[in-house]
């Protein structure tokens, strides 16, 4: 029997769980965590094939990924969760899903489409191009020592989840050069999935900070969510940290601090399709927005 194509089925609990099973089997991730974090991305449109038993055997999900690039809004989409069950590979299912996803993005009027992959050659034939990413490293800003009054945010606490979601929904883009306007659900999942992530609430500034200790002992700033981005010196003061070195994983143009751009090395690359221009200067997608 030929597999059944379905799209936009997230309200169907059985189909949603079947998709979760496929992603857990192929990637080792559990998207069911979203059920306790406020639910899935309301803009997400999964495009998938199901077998006769109702098992999800292939998927590619499109979602809205509004961006700020060089200070201007870019109506962009993202593609994620692309996979085919091993037993169904080699039958053209993924190629069909890519066509369906790009057609969906075109109908919705998206100006650009982004994805992350470790197999860029697979997507170049569809018009995607790899764009380099950087981290920003340098000495900590002067005056960064402080009292450490930031409060830890706990994703096992429903009130903290609600507070963090509110900050993410009302956030100022973390950079004028390149940043997502909204990526709430992935921020929450990455806070659990990414190694060593710590979340702190700067109560006076009404901002949440995602950070961790880097492999060389440097302070690594992953993201900031709030109605205004506080300076890096204020972030370190609120966390009670006085590191010698800092690494920022997004363009630091709102932080009142400049670092040296260092090319990111890794197998997973960011690819874009349809965007006319790139940011004016080095940039990166925050690890908290990785999809």
From TrEMBL:
Q: Which UniProt keywords apply?
A: Acyltransferase, Transferase
InterPro entries from the UniProt entry: Acetyltransferase_Eis, Acyl_CoA_acyltransferase, GNAT_dom
Question: One GO molecular-function annotation for this sequence?
Answer: acyltransferase activity
According to its UniProt record, the EC number is 2.3.-.-
Alphabetical list of Gene3D superfamilies matching this protein: 3.40.630.30
Which part of the chain is the N-acetyltransferase domain?
A: 17-154
**What's the short name of a Pfam family annotated to this entry?**
Acetyltransf_9
Please name the SUPFAM superfamilies in this protein's record. Acyl-CoA N-acyltransferases (Nat)
Q: What is this protein called?
A: GNAT family N-acetyltransferase
Organism, scientific name: Shinella pollutisoli
């Amino acid at each position: 029997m030929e597999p059944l194509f379905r799209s936009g089925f997230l309200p169907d609990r059985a189909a949603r769980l079947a998709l979760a099973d496929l992603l857990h089997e192929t990637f080792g991730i559990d998207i069911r965590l979203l059920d306790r974090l406020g639910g899935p991305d309301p803009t997400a449109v999964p495009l998938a094939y199901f077998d006769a038993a109702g098992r999800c055997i292939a998927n590619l999900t499109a979602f809205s990924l509004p961006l700020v690039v060089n200070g201007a809004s870019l109506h962009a989409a993202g593609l994620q969760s692309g996979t085919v069950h091993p037993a169904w590979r080699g039958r053209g299912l993924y190629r069909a899903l890519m066509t369906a996803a790009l057609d969906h993005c075109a109908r919705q009027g998206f100006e650009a489409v982004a994805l992350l992959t470790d197999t860029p050659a697979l997507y170049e034939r569809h018009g995607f191009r790899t764009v380099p990413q950087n981290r920003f490293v340098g000495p900590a800003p002067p005056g960064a020592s402080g009292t450490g009054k930031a409060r830890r945010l706990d994703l096992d606490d429903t009130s903290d989840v609600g507070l963090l979601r509110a900050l993410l929904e009302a956030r100022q883009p973390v950079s004028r050069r390149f940043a997502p306007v909204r990526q709430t659900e992935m921020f929450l999942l990455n806070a659990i999935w990414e190694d060593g992530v710590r979340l702190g609430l700067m109560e006076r500034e009404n901002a949440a900070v995602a950070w961790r200790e880097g492999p060389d002992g440097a302070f690594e700033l992953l993201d900031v969510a709030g109605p205004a981005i506080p300076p890096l010196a204020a972030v370190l003061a609120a966390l009670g940290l006085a590191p010698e070195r800092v690494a920022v994983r997004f363009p630091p143009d709102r932080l009142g601090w400049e670092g040296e751009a260092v090319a990111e090395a890794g197998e997973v690359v960011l690819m874009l399709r349809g965007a006319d221009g790139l940011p004016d200067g080095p940039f990166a997608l925050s690890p908290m927005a990785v999809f």
